[in-house]
Amino acid sequence: xxxxxxxxxxxxxxxxxxxxxxxxxxxxxxxxxxxxxxxxxxxxxxxxxxxxxxxxxxxxxxxxxxxxxxxxxxxxxxxxxxxxxxxxxxxxxxxxxxxxxxxxxxxxxxxxxxxxxxxxxxxxxxxxxxxx
Length: 132
Prior knowledge:
Number of helices: 7
Protein name: General odorant-binding protein 56d
Helix content: 55-70%
Keywords: Signal
Largest sheet: none
Number of strands: 0
Signal peptide: 1-19
CATH architecture: Orthogonal Bundle
Oligomer: single chain
CATH superfamily: Pheromone/general odorant binding protein domain
Pfam families: PBP_GOBP
Distance between the termini: 28 Å
Radius of gyration: 13 Å
CATH class: Mainly Alpha
Strand content: under 5%
Order of helices and strands: HHHHHHH
Number of domains: 1
Structural class: mainly alpha
GO molecular function: odorant binding
């Protein structure tokens, strides 16, 4: 069972776009992972505009870090799919589609946990999971 970066980053961005408060555990995890990875917060804010295709290692590792902070990714890089699915609010638009692609995209693998997180996020993005 493996899952990744953008699931959470996209969930947070989708929640913000949907007008919902971003959960405190994601806010706290974001702050901690910015500190751990040295990622410039402005880079993180611009991801929805610039896209993830050319993400650098700091961005990729930020995703893996955040997934660990919220209990979705283990230290060995494996992902708890059920934990990831439980983070998607039941009343969120496209709930079933998001859950479906968590199940589909979790199989994406990279050379390390950062690459795996990025690959999963790209799978979610490529399949336009968060679009209406």
